[in-house]
Amino acid sequence: MRVFTRRAVAVAAVAAVASTFAATPAQATIKPYVKVGYFTQWGIYGRDFQLAKVQKSGAASRLTHINYAFGPVTADGLCASADAWADWQTPFSAENSVDGVADVEGQPIAGNLNQLKELKAKNPKLRVLISLGGWSGSKYFSDAALTDASRQKLVSSCVDLWIKGNLPGLTPGVAAGILDGIDLDWEWPGSAGEVGNIIRPEDKQNFTLLTAEFRKQLDALSRSTKKHYDLTAFLPASPVKVDAGFEGKIFKYLDFATVQGYDFHGSWEARTNQQSAIFVPKGAPDNPDFSSEVAINKWISVGAPRKKLVLGLPYYSQGWTGVTAPGNGLFAPATGPAPGTFAAGTEDYKTVKSLPGFKVYRDLKSGHSWLFDGTTFWTYDDPAMMLQKTLYIRAKGLGGAMMWSLDGDDTNASLTKAVSTGLWTP
């Protein structure tokens, strides 16, 4: 294990991992890698992060997809907006608009959806998907997926609202063509997610039936519009959750699926740890443990095609404080979560990269890094680490990378640019 200053270059990570991946046969392909960035609906508020910043930073031109998060499933088994003001009502100033022109009263549509429309006009190859559910919006998925009738009802409402663009109170079809597909973020079929979520053993089979219904209705719409609509899903890293809620045959309905590559450990635990290592680190105190390799291998074992697996990467850190053990701080007892700007125990990359008094530590063999100042510990995915993870994606024959979430990157989109460089194809 080596200690690097903050000026450590990506070359060190690339050179160190070359031998690690040499034994894994890469699957050569000329198909471009998928690069998916999540944009959070609520980020325009306290985080002051608008889609204009995604354009100005250069991130938009380096992505293939943006997942717009989130659209909840209601108790009535329908798709809805979690925040209509953010989605299609709030006006943006010229400074905060993608096209540099201020919204005006009476225009057909405003809000984030109109900004996504402007973003696609400047980046014609960019595809935008609505992500359904999420951690706090998945409570009623199980009910909505329970029967043929409930599945048809849910999917029809989702297609009508988000794909056909029939927004409440606006001209029918006003948002048609803005979104190019649907991302299913049911967290989680058959196992615990947010407290209060409805869970059934039959969720596992019903999730497959739900993906089939989405594919059926999206393909039916394609026949009239002559457009392909993407269907994707966000999938867990935990093998236990995979077994409880998912069948390998979902992949025949999905264009690709993103696999959670983070939150393997976090500040809810009493000792510091990695949150997104490629491989389980030597000396890890938990057995079994989590890693990207554990997650990806589990999905491959249930029949997932490698090229349809997209590895999730974090644009944020997990943090602990009150660490008193000597050494580099890893696997050490802590008194609690480190203070964070928006929540205790988490912090954006753009913030932690500039914290004073911290050393950068890298375990290049396992593929993770962290910051430690003798008391406080932060996991740390910087551009060098992103490059190392793109090497893994290439060597493993995967379909690309997903990033949660774009507002965590710095103003120069350093993380997104590193991912794009690592997954460049001619």
From TrEMBL:
GO BP annotations, alphabetical order: carbohydrate metabolic process; chitin catabolic process
Highest taxon listed in the record's lineage: Bacteria
UniProt cross-references to Gene3D superfamilies, sorted A to Z: 3.10.50.10, Glycosidases
Family: Belongs to the glycosyl hydrolase 18 family.
One MF annotation (Gene Ontology) recorded for this entry: chitin binding
Species in which this protein is naturally found: Paractinoplanes abujensis
UniProtKB keywords: Carbohydrate metabolism, Chitin degradation, Glycosidase, Hydrolase, Polysaccharide degradation, Signal
E.C. number: 3.2.1.14
Signal peptide: 1-28
EC primary class: hydrolase
Catalytic activity of the protein: Random endo-hydrolysis of N-acetyl-beta-D-glucosaminide (1->4)-beta-linkages in chitin and chitodextrins
A Pfam family assignment: Glyco_hydro_18
Residue span(s) of domain GH18: 33-426
Name under which the protein is recorded: chitinase
SMART domains in the record: Glyco_18
Coiled-coil regions, chain positions: none
